[in-house]
Amino acid sequence: MCQAHNRCGSCRAPARLRRRRYCWHLCCLNYGWWAIARKETPEHIIGFGGIAPLNYLTQRRINLGYRLAVEAWGQRYATELGRDALALAFDALSLPEVFGLVRPDHAASIRVLEKLGMQRFGLLDDVPGQAPSLVLRVCHPTTAPT
To answer: Residue ranges of the N-acetyltransferase domain (predicted)?
Structure first.
């Protein structure tokens, strides 16, 4: 049953490590992944997302990411989460830039990131045998490149 919901196979060990990493980000860096729920049913988690460091394109980058249950697709949760995460990144943390990594066939996610002001920055060959992922970036308004 566990493997049907987790492509990695075993749930417990990777989930524990991931939870520790998420808690460390929130406690020590003041940012990380948030749970996403509807206001009407806060006990029912429909996804997660936020900003967190990732290593790609030869360096560590602050990445905006999210995963939503299929039932939540198309209801603007990704856009709302993205706006809140970018407000945290730029207003509270004064980060100079935030990146987004998206598969080229995920048109809805590409639209969300572009709606948030992200522009195409590069490609990342991260999935063997597949087209490279798109890397998008948005800069802090006061540090935007000219």
So the answer is: 1-139
The pLDDT averaged over each successive group of 10 residues in the chain (146 residues) is: 37 58 57 86 92 88 94 93 95 94 96 97 93 96 68
Q: Could you state, in order of their start, the residue ranges of all structural domains in the chain?
A: 1-30, 33-139
Run of H or E including 102: strand 97-102
- Closest Cα to residue 102, out of 57, 59, 132, 62? 132
| Whole-number CA gyration radius for the chain | 16
The DSSP code for 89 is I
Torsion, Cα 80 121 91 108, to 10 degrees, reads 0
CA distance 21 to 19: 5
CA angle 96–98–55, rounded 5-degree value = 110
